[in-house]
Amino acid sequence: MQAHVGDVLRFTGRTVGTPEHHAIVVEVLGRNGEPPYRVRYDDGHETESVPVPDA
Fold first, then answer.
1. Widest CA span in the chain
2. What DSSP element (H or E) covers 28?
3. Helix/strand number for the chain, H first, E second
4. Rounded to an integer, what distance in angstroms lies between the CA atom of residue 19 and that of residue 17?
5. What burial letters (b/e) apply to 11-43, b meaning 16+ CB within 10 Å?
6. What does pTM read for this prediction?
7. What are 10-52's pLDDT values in tens digits?
8. In this structure, are strands 37-41 and 46-49 parallel, antiparallel, or unpaired?
9. In angstroms, rounded to a whole number, what is the distance separating the alpha carbons of residues 27 and 39?
């Protein structure tokens, strides 16, 4: 997976009724656009993320 600053990552729930989460890539920490990424969620908190294949 490759991402750029400003891309939106979409995380879906694994159970019915679990809401989707969105995060904006604010920094690419890997090489050539690869994970890990620093992301900001809708509620404003930031964290590092290494998305799994189904994200």
1. 36
2. strand 21-28
3. 0, 4
4. 6
5. beeeeeeeeeeebbbeebeeeeeebebbbeeee
6. 0.81
7. 887 778 888 888 999 999 999 999 999 999 998 999 999 987 7
8. antiparallel
9. 7
* Block residue for tokens 């189904």: 54
**Which residue has tokens 């995380």?**
11
- The dihedral region occupied by 3, where left means phi > 0, alpha psi between -120 and 50, and beta the remainder, is beta
Q: Reading across the β-sheet that carries 46-49, which strands appear in turn?
A: 8-11, 21-28, 37-41, 46-49
pLDDT score recorded for residue 48: 95
Give the Cα separation of 35 and 51 in Å (integer). 7
